[in-house]
């Protein structure tokens, strides 16, 4: 059971990181583009930080860091790190399903190549 928890830490890192990226993109799109003036940029970014969903994205990133630290106590970095490339696949799927972003054959092939590379790296 202990080894299952170790792997769950890696995959929780991937899922929490992807969640943070998708929720940030979703909410930032609601706020519009970054203003041109410096003071307005600061106000804009501060207003983003006050959004509860964006805060949840930061919290997810923090939790992902905690999960990653736990995973690093159990795995070699060269073994565990390739699994983080699965973020590309998770973000592609979530951005298509939740944000309506287009998906292409090239993106699918790229994600398959990444997943295959992750598999090879994990076996090596």
TrEMBL record:
Pfam families per UniProt:
EamA (PF00892)
Report the residue ranges that make up the EamA domain in this protein: 52-120
What is the predominant subcellular site recorded for this chain? membrane
Query: Under the cellular component aspect of Gene Ontology, which terms does the record hold?
Result: plasma membrane
Q: Which residues cross the membrane?
A: 44-67, 79-99, 105-122
GO terms under biological process = lipid A biosynthetic process; lipopolysaccharide biosynthetic process
Picking any one GO molecular function of the record gives: transferase activity
- Keyword Hydrolase part of the UniProt annotation: no
Q: Which UniProt keywords apply?
A: Cell inner membrane, Cell membrane, Lipid A biosynthesis, Lipid biosynthesis, Lipid metabolism, Lipopolysaccharide biosynthesis, Membrane, Transferase, Transmembrane, Transmembrane helix
Localization terms from the record: Cell membrane
User: How is this protein positioned relative to the membrane?
Assistant: Multi-pass membrane protein
Query: What protein does this entry describe?
Result: 4-amino-4-deoxy-L-arabinose transferase
């Amino acid at each position: 059971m202990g080894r299952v928890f170790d792997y769950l830490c890696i995959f929780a890192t991937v899922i929490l990181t992807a969640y943070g990226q998708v929720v940030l993109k979703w909410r930032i799109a609601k706020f519009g583009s970054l203003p041109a003036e410096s003071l307005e940029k600061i106000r804009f970014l501060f207003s983003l930080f006050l959004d509860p969903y964006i805060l949840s994205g930061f919290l997810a990133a923090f939790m992902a860091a905690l999960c990653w630290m736990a995973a690093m106590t159990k795995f070699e970095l060269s073994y565990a790190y390739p699994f983080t490339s699965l973020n590309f696949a998770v973000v592609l799927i979530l951005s298509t399903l939740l944000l309506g972003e287009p998906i292409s054959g090239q993106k699918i092939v790229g994600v398959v190549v990444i997943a295959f590379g992750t598999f090879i790296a994990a076996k090596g």
